[in-house]
């Protein structure tokens, strides 16, 4: 039961926020994170077209042997991706509250440019309060 | 339809009561009043002031929509009619504590037509505001009346900005305003088109 990492991906597929919370995933450079986030954005776009029964909002959970990633797509096109252990149960509520923190601390800051990387102490501390100790 | 519109009312009430940070209504009204007056002094042209207010509103709307979605946790609306209901009963309620009356211009026959056909471009709704917290203390001078100032034009911008972020291009404009001596305050929101589901990757 652990939350490993959080991504925020903007509409265009750019990674605007990335933070690790616990060890368990491979350590990647920020460049590698960017590439993977872009890839996920593409995969997500494909999955949203695969549905045999019409409109779909795309992949929501991707599971691996030792972790799963939960993708929360907002109506505005921003994606929040949470990397957790397989049996983490709080994922959905955490993502919902991350979105609220994003709305409060990021979007309401008049000096934040939408779609640009998030560098906000307010958001950092809200996330820390929400998920726990952050490393780097 | 009646039940869902009641549900929206309940959602709006709930967000307003338990999840909205409140500020003093007078501070809010005075701040907005000062802003409009300053714009009038700076631009000396009412049409331009309307435009600037709309622009400001747009910028607010593009940000406010995230707050709205995060707190209401509502999904996508099935048709433009539903958009009108949600805007009035949840949106206006949760941010301004008012619930405008919605009048839909194209009453669609009930039945399950596919969403794409149930959304003809050009459908619209009219929001009738019984009260307007922005204009609490306002009496427009003769000059502003003649100049065609829409005092609360920021609201149009907010609607346009917020709906654009959820892939709807709309045109929002005031039809009438009690400040101008009209009988009611009405905003018309007209759907221009649905934007592409997701913005293509590229030039940013």
Automatic annotation (TrEMBL), chain A:
One of its GO terms (cellular component) is Golgi apparatus. The keyword Transport applies. Belongs to the TRAPP small subunits family. TRAPPC4 subfamily. It comes from the Eukaryota. One of its GO terms (biological process) is endoplasmic reticulum to Golgi vesicle-mediated transport. This is Trafficking protein particle complex subunit. It is found in: Endoplasmic reticulum; Golgi apparatus, cis-Golgi network; Golgi apparatus. It comes from Jaapia argillacea MUCL 33604. CDD domains: TRAPPC4_synbindin. Part of the multisubunit transport protein particle (TRAPP) complex. SUPFAM superfamilies: SNARE-like (SSF64356). Keywords: Endoplasmic reticulum, ER-Golgi transport, Golgi apparatus, Transport. InterPro entries: Longin-like_dom_sf, TRAPPC.
From TrEMBL, chain B:
Coiled coil: none annotated. Signal peptide: none annotated. SUPFAM superfamilies: Ligand-binding domain in the NO signalling and Golgi transport. Residues 105-116 have a biased composition (Low complexity). Residues 101-123 are annotated as: Disordered. InterPro entries: Bet3 (IPR016721), NO_sig/Golgi_transp_ligand-bd (IPR024096), TRAPP_component (IPR007194). Pfam families: TRAPP. It is found in: Endoplasmic reticulum; Golgi apparatus, cis-Golgi network. Keywords: Endoplasmic reticulum, ER-Golgi transport, Golgi apparatus, Transport. GO terms for cellular component: endoplasmic reticulum; Golgi apparatus; TRAPP complex. GO terms for biological process: Golgi vesicle transport; macroautophagy. Belongs to the TRAPP small subunits family. BET3 subfamily. This is Trafficking protein particle complex subunit BET3. It comes from Jaapia argillacea MUCL 33604.
């Amino acid at each position: 039961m652990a939350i490993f990492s959080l991504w925020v991906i903007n509409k265009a597929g750019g990674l605007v926020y990335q933070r690790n919370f616990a060890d368990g995933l491979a350590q990647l450079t920020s460049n590698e994170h960017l590439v993977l986030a872009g890839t996920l954005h593409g995969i997500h776009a494909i999955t949203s077209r695969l549905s045999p029964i019409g409109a779909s909002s795309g992949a929501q959970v991707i599971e691996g042997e030792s972790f799963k990633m939960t993708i929360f797509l907002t109506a505005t096109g921003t994606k929040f991706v949470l990397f957790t252990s397989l049996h983490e149960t709080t994922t959905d509520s955490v993502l919902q509250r991350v979105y609220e923190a994003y709305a409060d601390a990021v979007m309401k800051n008049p000096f934040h440019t939408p779609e640009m990387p998030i560098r906000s102490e307010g958001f950092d501390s809200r996330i820390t309060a929400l998920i726990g100790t952050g490393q780097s | 339809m009646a039940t869902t519109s009641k549900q929206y009312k309940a959602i709006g009430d709930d967000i307003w009561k338990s999840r909205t940070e409140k500020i003093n209504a007078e501070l809010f009204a005075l701040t907005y009043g000062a802003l409009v007056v300053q714009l009038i002094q700076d631009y000396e042209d009412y049409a331009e002031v309307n435009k600037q207010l709309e622009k400001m509103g747009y910028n607010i709307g593009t940000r406010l929509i995230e707050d709205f979605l995060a707190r209401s946790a509502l999904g996508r609306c099935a048709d433009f009619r539903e958009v009108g209901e949600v805007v009035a009963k949840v949106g206006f309620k949760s941010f301004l504590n008012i619930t405008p009356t919605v009048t839909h211009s194209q009453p669609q026959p009930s039945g399950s037509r596919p969403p794409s056909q149930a959304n003809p471009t050009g459908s619209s709704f009219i929001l009738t505001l019984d009260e307007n917290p922005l204009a609490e203390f306002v009496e427009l001078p003769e000059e502003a009346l003649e100049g065609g100032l829409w005092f609360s034009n920021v609201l149009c911008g907010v609607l346009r900005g917020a709906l654009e972020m959820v892939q709807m291009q709309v045109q929002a404009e005031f039809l009438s305003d009690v400040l101008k001596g009209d009988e009611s305050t009405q905003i018309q929101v007209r759907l221009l088109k649905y934007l592409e589901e997701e913005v293509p990757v590229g030039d940013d």
